[in-house]
Every structure is written in C-alpha cells, then in structure tokens.
Recover the amino acids of this structure.
C-alpha cells in the first residue's frame, strides 16, 4: 500500500477523472457493438473517442504521474500507473483503428480494454486506492 497522503491525493485525482467521464457527451450510436463494430460507424466513433474519452484518460494518467513516487508502496503504485498507461494506450489503439476503419483492430482493442479492468482493480486495491478502478468501469 502507498502512504495515506498519496492515497488521498490519488483518490482525488481519480474522482476528478470520474467526474470528467460522467460529463462526456452521449455516445453517438446507441446500437453500436464495439466487439463487432460496423466499419461505417467507425469514423463517428473515432471522433467521439478522440474528443471525449482520450482527454479524460490522458489527463488521468498525467495527473497520477504528477503525484510523484511514494515513500512506501512503490511496487503497488507502479502497477497502478502501468494499468492506467495500458488503458491510455488501448484507447489510442481504438481511436487509430476507428480512424482507419479497421473493425477487427477496434474489436481487439475493445476486448483488451475490458480485460485491462481486472489488472486495474487488482493494482488499485493493492495500492489502497480502489476508487481509481471506477474511472475505467
């Protein structure tokens, strides 16, 4: 576990990211299936992801990194950062796949994002900041 001061600051960062997520504009295609995406929908999805999701997740990662290195719990904290970095990378992969109309790559990134939640939950629990897992749910 990380120290209580860093945990409180990290939780605050995650609460801000969650508030940002809750303020996203509605997803533009309610019937969209991200695991079997229609290529025709991908340009609109790419714009939404780039405009709504990417800024939130990019800032979340940046703000967590800005908290610095903990005095205790460095390994759990590193796992949290790695899990969030993976989410940011996979979100970027979704955007790239959507921009290029690659349904298969989009579905793969979507499935990998879903799988990444397990590591995020494990890492945030071990670090003592379980609320941070809510950002990606």
């Amino acid at each position: 576990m990380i120290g209580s001061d860093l945990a409180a600051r990290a939780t605050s960062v995650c609460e801000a990211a969650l508030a940002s997520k809750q303020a996203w504009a509605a997803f533009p295609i309610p019937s969209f299936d991200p695991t079997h995406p229609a290529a025709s929908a991908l340009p609109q999805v790419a714009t939404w992801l780039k405009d709504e999701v990417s800024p939130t997740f990019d800032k979340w990662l940046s703000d967590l990194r800005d908290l610095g290195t903990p005095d205790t719990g460095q390994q759990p904290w590193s796992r949290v950062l790695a899990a969030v970095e993976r989410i940011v990378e996979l979100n970027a992969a979704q955007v790239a796949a959507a921009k290029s109309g690659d349904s298969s790559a989009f579905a793969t990134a979507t499935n990998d994002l879903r799988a990444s939640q397990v590591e995020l939950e494990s890492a945030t629990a071990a670090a003592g900041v379980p609320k941070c897992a809510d950002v990606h749910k």
Notes: DSSP finds four helices and no strands in the chain. The CA atoms of residues 15 and 132 lie 7 Å apart. The first helix runs from residue 4 to 22. The mean pLDDT is 95.
